[in-house]
Amino acid sequence: MQRAVGDRGRGRRVVGGVSSAGMTRAGRWGVLVGLAVVVGCDGGAASVAPQVAPAETVAVTGGLSTPPVEVAGEPAPGPEDPASLVGWWRGPQTCIEIFKNGDFELTDNGEPKVMVMGKTSVTAGDGGFALALATERVWRARFTGPCRKVHETGDFKQEHEVLGVTFKPGESGALKLRRTGADTLELCGDRCEPLKRDTPALGARWRRDNMEYPDRPEVGWAAGDLLELDIDDTLGHVWVGRAGGKFGTMYARTAARYVEPDAFVVTLTPERYHVDADILKETPSALGVAFAVGGTQELRVRRLAGERIEVCGVDSQCATLVRQFDSYDHDI
User: Average pLDDT of each block of 10 consecutive residues along the chain (332 residues)?
Assistant: First the structure.
């Protein structure tokens, strides 16, 4: 059972302590598909699918890259290579992101929005690719009906159907992908939807594990530890560890820049710093980075398996944070 946690930094509630896999709110997704613009999660015209090599099963784990990115001088994988599917693919209602670390996120942009998460493996053959999606969690966002006659806060679900296929935690669901162009493909279950490649995005709130209640953490921290990173298009924040088991909230403009598969640079422009109800003049710091108001700082972020990220500052100072889901957020 999940418990809502008060976010004293921004006056809203978040869900914490899902499991060792963690929890949070994801980024905002929009979509441009074919000739129509659709605001979606986060297709293209059909064409002859490329011929593929004999059937080969590949676990989407390390060493993969997303075209046209090249890593360490190595060429990007060709369209017949399962590794070429690593990246973010968006459709009018359905989106799928296949990560270099082996995770997947399958989003249904209906009402309410739902995201299926877990591990994936890819089998190439029969003119396309078969996806085995081992589901770990299913998150349903907050839903408010017309005239607010229906109001449901976000929570985890026991199952959800996408393209006619039912996904349940602890079970594996199967979908198929067929390329229809260099940057387009068709995702199919019992029915199909066209998807188009887009640049991966990073958003959401990420928190140190064992901090369901920040004022009563299961594990303590030291001054200078990074406790939470909230990447938000409007105004994000950072929780910074202070001496004596205290922490402060640094509010900042945040932006994430995609570098390569699973890797981003997050830029922060601090605006103010709060501790409890006071505004302090001191400059907070975490991971060796001083977040001075009026300046701009950068953190290196890498997505890890299990809905986690590694955030690094200077001199190899890094922290692992776990994704949080906001039960009062309508977005994924």
Answer: 37 36 38 35 37 37 36 67 93 97 96 96 90 97 82 91 97 96 96 97 95 80 94 94 87 97 97 73 88 94 98 95 90 80
Give the CA radius of gyration of the chain: 20
Contacts of residue 235, defined as CB under 8 A and 6 or more positions apart, other chains included, come to 251, 252, 253, 254, 271
Helix, strand, coil percentages for the chain (3-state, nearest 5): 5, 50, 45
**Got the DSSP string for 276-287?**
TTEE--S--EET
The single-letter code of the amino acid at 124 is A
The pLDDT of residue 288 is 95
Percent of the chain whose predicted confidence (pLDDT) is above 90: 56
* Torsion angles phi and psi, residue 214, rounded to 5: -60, -30
Q: Which residue has the tokens 């640094």?
A: 250
Handedness of CA 147, 148, 150, 152 (dihedral sign): positive
Gap between the Cα atoms of 216 and 245, Å rounded: 10
Please spell the DSSP secondary structure of 34-97, one letter per residue: TTEEE---------PPPP-PSPEEEE--TT---TT--BTTBPPPPTTSGGGG-EEEE-SSEEEE
The CATH fold of domain 204-324: Lipocalin (2.40.128)
Model's pTM, two decimal places?
0.77
3-state secondary structure of 110: coil
pLDDT number for residue 277 = 55
**In the chain, where are the structural domains located?**
28-198, 204-324
Tell me which residue of 204, 199, 169 sits closest to 97, measured CA to CA.
199
In one-letter notation, the amino acid at residue 82 is: P
Contact 153, 142 (CB under 8 A): yes
